[in-house]
């Protein structure tokens, strides 16, 4: 068979290319319109399911609800809780593979509130600080409870919304007791081990610029830099004071180290949820508040059942979701969870003070810190400067 | 079909459409373009939802990274991309040093494996087998752990010959620093000296060519390379001194818990570089050995026959020919050094990957950051490939 001439072969291939381009164009057009329809349908369905979105005329990209996490969690039957697994006291995986810590208790409390089962939690490893927000944004976790600081830029830039703070701390410095360092002004050109992937680096950079000193950073994951510090690689280890305490308390030579009283930043640690999911955030918020309120009014894991059976006053009845003297039960307006959600949370983990005592205890002083109850009430406080002694706490702008 | 004579083929218009070659190709290419377009649209759509953009790289960095060479970038006034470039520079330093050292290790160990000395050959084999068969991550972490735990803490710093110090803060060695010299600022100095060096190098090459010509014409050894190198070295030194010797050697000192003056090779840099060197060196050694053994035995015998010494045989006959075999495989190893340098993550070294991680944590935008990381690693790989292809073209220019 004779081969077609070069020219005609070129012509054929040019035609074929044109044909392919046409098909591609048609495909793109078809796909785009198809998917637009599907998307519109999905949005419609979502709106029907969620009811409260009905009056929204057109879903905008930025403010579009990214799903209903409560519904998702209840359908799935487990809560996917992103936690740290490398920090004693707050979120740590022990030798037996159990995850324990202060943050873990809040996962359990929320699971008890939403799923009626404190053990229906799947602990997802969010130890790596630099990917934790992606886990949340991508829906691999429902909630991030991982010693995460609320900051303005995280709230604005990332797809994360913060609920009520569970632990107030600030960035501090740990040094060897024999180092002769008493404050950051003694740290000119010091080698400083800094945990990367946190707000820590920025605080230390800001602070040293403010005081006009230079320093030499060694950055890394928190457990790695802590190890380097304890080997004498650096003079100073800086992290949240709570983090420092948890690293030092587990050591045999804990007495050789001290945490300087100087605190250079505010680090309110709070649970993070996805943006534009306020029902879910509300539940998380009020579980945390409920546990704190329980401590204020003396509800404990031990007495909650008795209190629920025979509530002493209307507030206890409201908080526990039980009728007061034969009246009706107040739902407090929560649709997605039933009225007893706080009661279940307290039954599962106890009140805030009990959680603190159980998980942190004496490792981090509680009395007279921001993590204690606001008592004496401001009006009773003595020796307060003008405008001081209250409970106003602005979140950090950074 | 193929067994039938071609005359029995049905006329083209009777063949079903699906069996026609042109239509099938059209279908295949259409499907390919369609799937690609679908993927592209999917990615575009996903990015749209995420607010894709690179503007965040221009925001203030607000963090500091360790780099003992670039100390004037504080991270407070600089933007994120600048800090990223500091990380890139840190990576390139490690890659460059590891490539040089691993090549050296590779050639020495590769030749040693073929040594007739039993002990030397076995030791070389032991080295290759140990480092080729254990994970690089383990080696890097091990070297770092040895530095951290094994080296004395700075309070008990070890002094080497009164000019260098070693502790787990690093190895402090003397280092030349430019100073004002006899005739004022050193700013002009670099330009003038580099211009002089180029002139001296040109002269050295001219002499080399001339001597090579004489050697070719007369057959008498003229040592062209040695002459050229000697002229360049002496010329560089003399011109440097003549220009006023605007450098002084800074000897390190220890004050309190820190090194001053000199330069510090930090344990993080050392661990990563040594790890990469040992690991890649083991592979390079095998490549060198294989390339040498691939040469026909006659080459060695011929060299022996004309009375060359073992050293001359290796440097004049064997290695130049083996080089042709080596370079493509060695290039792969160099590219691996580039990629493996990201293990800096394990030893607290602030390479580009770690700095990118810091930026990601501050600004989110993981997709954009990974795009930047991928492009950076590909650019470095591309650079290595270009250089190696140039060298390869040079050594294969002459046919054997």
Short summary of the structure?
Chain A is α/β, with parallel strands linked by helices and 398 residues long. Helix content of chain A is 39%, strand content 14%.
Structure commentary:
The complex is a heterodimer of chains A (398) and B (400). Chain A is α/β, with parallel strands linked by helices and 398 residues long. Among the domains of chain A are: 69-168, 3-Layer(aba) Sandwich (D-Maltodextrin-Binding Protein, domain 2); 171-265, D-Maltodextrin-Binding Protein, domain 2; 290-371, no CATH class. Chain A is 39% helix and 14% strand. Chain A is built from 13 helices and 15 strands. Chain A has helices at 6-50, 69-76, 102-115, 132-137, 152-157, 200-210, 222-230, 241-249, 278-296, 304-309, 314-320, 341-349, 352-359, and strands at 79-83, 86-87, 91-93, 99-100, 121-125, 143-144, 161-162, 167-169, 171-176, 190-195, 215-220, 236-240, 257-259, 267-269, 272-273. In chain A, the strands form 5 sheets. Chain A has a 5-stranded mixed β-sheet with strand order 11-10-12-9-13. A 3-stranded parallel β-sheet of chain A has the order 5-1-6. The longest helix of chain A has 45 residues, at 6-50. The model of chain A is unreliable at 26-45 and 47-62 (pLDDT under 50). By secondary structure, chain B is an alpha+beta fold. Chain B contains 11 helices and 8 strands. Chain B has helices at 21-49, 80-113, 118-132, 136-150, 187-218, 224-242, 267-293, 297-305, 310-340, 352-363, 366-395, and strands spanning 158-160, 164-167, 170-173, 175-178, 247-250, 253-255, 258-260, 263-265. In chain B, helix 9 (310-340) runs antiparallel to helix 11 and helix 10 packs antiparallel against helix 11. The longest helix of chain B has 34 residues, at 80-113. Chain B starts with 20 loop residues before the first helix and ends in a 5-residue tail after the last helix. The mean pLDDT of chain B is 85. Classes of the chains: A alpha/beta (398), B alpha+beta (400). The interface between A and B is large, with 54 and 49 residues.
């Amino acid at each position: 068979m004779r081969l077609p001439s070069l020219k005609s072969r070129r012509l054929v291939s040019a035609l074929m290319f044109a044909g392919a381009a046409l098909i591609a164009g048609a495909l793109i057009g078809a796909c785009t319109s198809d998917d637009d329809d599907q998307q519109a349908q999905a949005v419609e369905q979502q709106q029907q399911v969620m009811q409260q979105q009905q009056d929204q005329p057109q879903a905008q990209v930025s403010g579009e609800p990214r799903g209903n996490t409560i519904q998702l969690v209840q359908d799935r039957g487990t809560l996917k809780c992103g936690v740290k697994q490398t920090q004693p006291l707050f979120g740590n995986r022990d030798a037996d593979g159990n995850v324990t810590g202060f943050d873990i208790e809040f996962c359990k409390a929320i699971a008890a509130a939403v799923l009626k089962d404190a053990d229906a939690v799947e602990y997802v490893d969010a130890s790596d600080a630099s990917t934790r927000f992606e886990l949340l944004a991508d829906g691999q976790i429902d909630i991030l409870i991982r010693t995460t600081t609320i900051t303005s830029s995280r709230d604005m830039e990332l797809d994360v919304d913060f609920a009520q703070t569970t632990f107030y701390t600030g960035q501090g410095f740990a040094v060897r007791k024999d180092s002769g360092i008493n404050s950051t002004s003694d740290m000119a050109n010091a080698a400083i081990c800094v945990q990367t992937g946190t707000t820590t680096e920025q605080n230390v950079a800001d602070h040293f610029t403010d005081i006009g000193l230079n320093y030499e950073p060694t950055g890394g994951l928190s457990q790695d830099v802590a190890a380097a510090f304890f080997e004498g690689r650096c003079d100073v280890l800086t992290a949240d004071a709570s983090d420092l305490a948890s690293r030092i308390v587990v050591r045999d030579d804990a007495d050789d180290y001290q945490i300087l009283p100087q605190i250079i930043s505010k680090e309110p640690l709070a649970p993070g949820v996805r943006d534009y999911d306020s029902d879910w955030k509300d539940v998380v918020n009020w579980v945390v508040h409920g546990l704190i309120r329980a401590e204020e009014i003396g509800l404990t894991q031990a007495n909650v059942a008795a209190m629920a059976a025979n509530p002493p006053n209307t507030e206890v009845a409201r908080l526990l979701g039980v009728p007061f003297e034969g009246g009706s039960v107040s739902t407090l307006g929560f649709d997605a969870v039933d009225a007893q959600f706080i009661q279940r949370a307290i039954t599962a983990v106890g009140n805030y003070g009990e959680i603190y005592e159980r998980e942190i205890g004496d490792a981090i002083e509680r009395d007279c810190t921001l993590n204690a109850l606001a008592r004496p009430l401001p009006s009773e406080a003595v020796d307060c400067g003008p405008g001081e002694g209250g409970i106003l706490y602005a979140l950090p702008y950074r | 079909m193929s067994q039938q004579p071609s005359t029995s083929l049905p006329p083209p218009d009777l063949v079903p459409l699906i069996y026609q070659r042109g239509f099938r190709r059209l279908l295949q290419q259409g499907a390919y373009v369609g799937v690609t377009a679908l993927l592209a649209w999917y990615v575009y759509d996903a990015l749209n939802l995420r607010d894709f953009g690179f503007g965040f790289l221009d925001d203030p960095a607000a963090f500091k990274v360790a780099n003992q060479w670039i100390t004037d970038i504080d991270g407070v006034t600089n933007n994120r991309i600048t800090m990223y470039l500091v990380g890139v520079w840190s990576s390139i330093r490690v890659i460059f040093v590891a490539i040089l050292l691993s090549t050296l290790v590779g050639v020495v160990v590769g030749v040693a494996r073929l040594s007739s000395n039993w002990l030397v050959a076995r030791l070389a084999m032991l080295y290759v087998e140990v480092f080729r068969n254990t994970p690089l991550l383990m080696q890097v972490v091990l070297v770092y752990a040895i530095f951290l735990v094994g080296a004395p803490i700075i309070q008990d710093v070890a002094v080497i010959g009164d000019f260098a110090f070693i502790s787990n803060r690093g190895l402090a060695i003397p280092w030349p620093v430019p100073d004002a010299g006899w005739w004022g600022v050193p700013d002009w100095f670099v330009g003038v000296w580099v211009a002089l060096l180029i002139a001296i190098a040109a002269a050295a090459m001219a002499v080399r060519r001339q001597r090579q010509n004489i050697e070719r014409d007369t057959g008498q050894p003229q040592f062209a390379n040695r002459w050229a190198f000697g002229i360049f070295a002496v010329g560089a030194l003399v011109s440097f001194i003549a220009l006023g010797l605007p450098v002084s050697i800074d000897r390190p000192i220890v004050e309190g818990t820190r090194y001053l003056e000199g330069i510090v090779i930090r344990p993080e840099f050392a661990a990563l570089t040594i790890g990469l060197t040992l690991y890649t060196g083991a592979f390079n050694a095998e490549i060198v050995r294989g390339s040498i053994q691939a040469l026909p035995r006659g080459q060695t015998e011929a060299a022996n026959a004309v009375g060359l010494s073992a050293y001359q045989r290796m440097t004049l006959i064997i290695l130049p020919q083996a080089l042709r075999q080596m370079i493509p495989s060695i290039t792969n190893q160099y590219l691996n050094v580039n990629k493996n340098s990201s293990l800096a993550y394990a030893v607290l070294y602030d390479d580009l990957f770690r700095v990118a991680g810091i930026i990601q944590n501050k600004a989110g935008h993981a997709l954009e950051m990974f795009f930047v990381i991928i492009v950076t690693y590909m650019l470095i790989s591309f650079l290595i490939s270009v250089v190696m292809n140039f060298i390869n073209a040079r050594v294969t220019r002459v046919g054997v």
